[in-house]
Design goal:
Strand order of the largest sheet: 5-7-12-9-10
Shape: rod-shaped
Largest sheet: 5 strands, mixed
CATH topology of the largest domain: Jelly Rolls
Radius of gyration: 28 Å
Distance between the termini: 85 Å
Bound molecules: calcium ion
Structural class: alpha+beta
Number of helices: 3
CATH architecture of the largest domain: Sandwich
Number of strands: 13
Order of helices and strands: HHHEEEEEEEEEEEEE
Length: 229
């Protein structure tokens, strides 16, 4: 029995599998042409790029890198195999106080949560929100609190103000509050012996979320802010 053809087939398969697993060296570039149909490889590469949000890529030998992503997608982890794995949140275009996302009213005992991402490589990304704590008198009821929460909280900072002109919410010592992990207002003047409410009730709070350090994964670029009263 002549097994020559069988051995040739096995050898060819071994070469292809080796090339797929380990890549091919510069010297064996001719071999790659012999092993694979380049149009098919190109089509597979293009379909992979389209499916993973890659707008353009470059390959050198068997190593490919992402050059750019489709709109709203980002290659945060720098890994080619999962493409542009991180998407912008729905606040993507909110980069000014004037266009802050309005989270509505929070009454005493109420709460809400907002989650988003501050994307590395998106030079202007920061997210602005507005929340209202309506009160009919002093003390205002409840304890308005805005806090970064979750495992990634320390990656981010809050900046808070009472209006888009930088109105202060600071107690006593003045200044606009920046680099916060949490803002909390306790209306405890009544019963303390003071006769003047030195700090206005925070009826409206604008807050901005920024990232402190470079995120190297999509999850590290994600923040959660808890608002309670
Ligand atoms: Ca990636
Ligand atoms: Ca964002």
């Amino acid at each position: 029995m002549d097994i020559t053809n069988h051995q040739r087939t096995n050898t060819s398969l071994d070469q292809r599998i080796n090339a797929l697993i380990h890549g091919v060296s510069q010297e064996s570039a001719v071999l790659f042409h012999e092993l694979f149909d380049l149009d098919t490889i190109q089509r597979i590469q293009d379909e992979f790029a389209a499916a993973t949000g890659v707008a353009s890529y470059g390959c050198s030998g068997s190593t490919c890198t992402i050059a750019s992503c489709s709109a709203g997608l980002y290659d945060v982890n720098g890994t080619y195999s999962d493409g542009c794995e991180c998407s912008e949140d729905s606040y993507g275009s909110i980069h000014t106080c004037a266009t802050a996302r309005d989270l509505g009213d929070i009454s005493s005992g109420g709460s809400t949560t907002v989650s988003g991402r501050i994307i590395p490589g998106s030079a202007t990304d920061d997210d602005w929100f507005r929340v209202d704590f309506p009160a009919s008198g002093r003390p205002g009821g409840g304890r308005p609190t805005i806090a970064l929460t979750g495992a990634s909280a320390s990656n981010f900072s809050l900046q808070v103000a009472s209006n888009c002109s930088g109105g202060s919410l600071a107690c006593g010592d003045g200044g606009i509050l920046t680099s916060l992990q949490e803002y909390e207002f306790t209306d405890n003047v009544v019963g303390s012996g003071w006769t003047v409410n030195g700090t206005s009730w925070p009826s409206t709070v604008y807050f901005r979320v920024t990232r402190n350090s470079t995120a190297t994964s999509c999850s590290a670029a994600a923040y959660t802010v808890s608002i309670t009263r």
